[in-house]
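Hey, can you fold this one?
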Amino acid sequence: MGWIIALVIVLLLVFWVIGVYNSLIQSRNKVKNAFAQIDTQLQRRFDLIPNLVETVKGYASHEKELLENVTASRSGYMNAHSAAEKIEADNQLTSTLKTLFAVAENYPDLKANQNFAKLQDDLKGTEDKVAFSRQFYNDSVTIYNNKLQTFPNNMIAGMFGFKEEVLFKTDEAAKAAPKVQF
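Sure. Predicted structure:
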């Protein structure tokens, strides 16, 4: 009789570990999916940037350094591998694009250009989707990290090598308004 109770306890413990493990896997996969959604929206933004740069070149040819910075920032994200590197590269690109749009304000002909206006609208729509995707990603990461840190899940997470994910934070430089000087 005692061995039956011990067997039931062991089985309950095994099923509990399996349940916690599967829950952690599902949360981790949700985080990966959320980051993939950000990647998808950023790829759309990256596809729009060369056209934007070419349009601006015609009107603001003396802004060569700024246009080179936009192109370099875009390349930086595409060459990033880890989530942390991608987050940093995206922050840099976001800051550079803010500066580009601030400079464009000083060119009435550029602002009136239909191609530029459409690209600007497309980028704004994409930026809204990126912001939503970042929020969803951060929510998913918070839920996942909470599961990893709470007892008794933290014991199972540690046994199976689950690691915390990083939140998508905007760096302080990207939060600041761009300074445009001529």
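The chain has one domain: 16-175. Let me know if you want another pass with a different chain boundary.
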